[in-house]
Amino acid sequence: MDKITALKELKEWEFKISAYNLLLSTAMFDESTIAPKGGLEYRSERFAYLNGILYELTTDKKIEEVITYLSSLDDLALEDKRKVTLYLKDINKTKAIPKDEYVAFSKAQMLAGDAWERAKKKDDYSIFKPHLLKMIDYQKRFALYRNPDKDPYDT
């Protein structure tokens, strides 16, 4: 592998990642503003599916090899060196979590957002409480996946 090819592959990967992130952020905005509430389950399943694709793109072995190679170069531009460092950190953080849990979390997160809005409108915490507890549980498990020897609250 050479530097020019690796940088080209990185740029193509960045484009794909940014496209999915744009799509997901637009979907979240739509969900919180104008989307009909009756379609929440339908949208949350599709949202989770797209997050699964994003997970696969993020944890792809080939791009990890490209990024690892680039991180070993001494003559990499400072901006590229920083991006590569952050990408490796993100890849390791993501791949520590099993894909099925990552996808389930993304669906639960969307459902929690909806519950938060309903609870806020009705001034009724009990609507949001089970979702909040589920989010905390996910975060604790994710912390243990990433640092099994540490207390989740220290991670």
Show the helix and strand layout.
Elements: H1 3-33, H2 40-58, H3 61-71, H4 78-95, H5 99-122, H6 125-146
Helix pairs in contact: 1-2, 1-3, 2-5, 3-4, 5-6
Fold and architecture overview:
This protein starts with a helix and ends in a 9-residue tail after the last helix. The chain is globular, with a radius of gyration of 18 Å. It contains six helices and no strands. The chain has helices at 3-33, 40-58, 61-71, 78-95, 99-122, 125-146. Helix 2 (40-58) runs antiparallel to helix 5. 81% of the residues lie in helices and 0% in strands. The chain is an all-alpha fold and 155 residues long.
Short note summarizing the structure:
The protein is an all-alpha fold. It contains 6 helices and no strands.
Quaternary structure type: single chain
Structural category: mainly alpha
Low-confidence spans: none
Number of helices: 6
H/E element sequence: HHHHHH
* Distance N to C terminus: 36 Å
Keyword list:
single chain; 155 residues; mainly alpha; 0% strand
